[in-house]
Amino acid sequence: MLKKWWLSLRPFSFTASIIPVLLGAAIGAGQTNLNFTGLIITIIAGLCYHCVANLFNSYWDWENRYDMPNSVQVIPVLLDEKFGSKALYNFSIRVLYLSIILTILLGLLYGFLVFLIASFGLLGAYYYTAPPIAYKYRGWSLPAVFLFMGLLMPTSSYIVQTRTFSSRILWLAVPLGLLTTAILQVNELRDYHTDLKNGGLTFTIILGRKLAVLAYQIFIFLPYFLVIWFYFKGETSILSLTTLLTITIPLNLGKEARNGNFNKLDQSTAKLHTVFGLLYLLGFIFK
């Protein structure tokens, strides 16, 4: 039973929340001593926001019949007669309440700006597919995820560490933000025909399948060029260039995308995000 609930959180993608938080902390720790308590709270909050997005996305996609029993992305809880959509909704609400508590705690401990960013991020997680906004089906999904998870997560983590804001963190977060966006992009490519059939207007549907595949390839290759640029600008140490050792991964992923093999590509892209992200972190930890 616990395994079904665990899988319903889509844990393979959790590094998309954890590594951006670590990035913000690593950059911030270069200016001050690491606030370990703040880092742990920020990671837990980020994971909870991620779970809110995943759980409510699963619930509303099911309720609105974007997902069907034979869909590859349907989570186990929805297919179990002992649970179903009502149990999923109740669990999602509890995770949402926990996220609200953590948002308030972050604000009390680390200031109004952190509270504001965290609140904005939590609203973004909830309204990803929840009515009345449900921006996933208004074509805002990829830009919003790039903003919320790619930029705001490392920014809030940086502020927790330093108690200040710097636009520098926004630029340095872009490589990971692009890879996070790539995970969502390939999800939408997998669901392209189902979403189109049910009237969903995702960012990928607006682009069209061919352009969406091209966008995915840009998202997974551009981070490598940015890391090289950041190194020559003196923003990272030479260790950040170890990310180049992983270049064969996006080459293979790009080929799979061009061939239309999307079913497991989200998990493979999440693995790229993890490996690239950890190597990228080295460039700041040992700067």
Give a quick set of tags describing it.
287 residues; mainly alpha; Farnesyl Diphosphate Synthase; 14 helices; globular
How much is the average pLDDT? 94
Helix % is over 70%
Cα shape: globular
**How many DSSP H or I helices?**
14
How does this structure look, described?
The protein is mostly helical. The chain has one domain: Orthogonal Bundle (Farnesyl Diphosphate Synthase), CATH 1.10.600. Helices cover about 70% and strands about 0% of the residues. It is built from 14 helices and no strands. Helix 3 runs antiparallel to helix 5 and helix 7 packs antiparallel against helix 9. The N and C termini lie far apart (about 45 Å). The mean pLDDT is about 95.
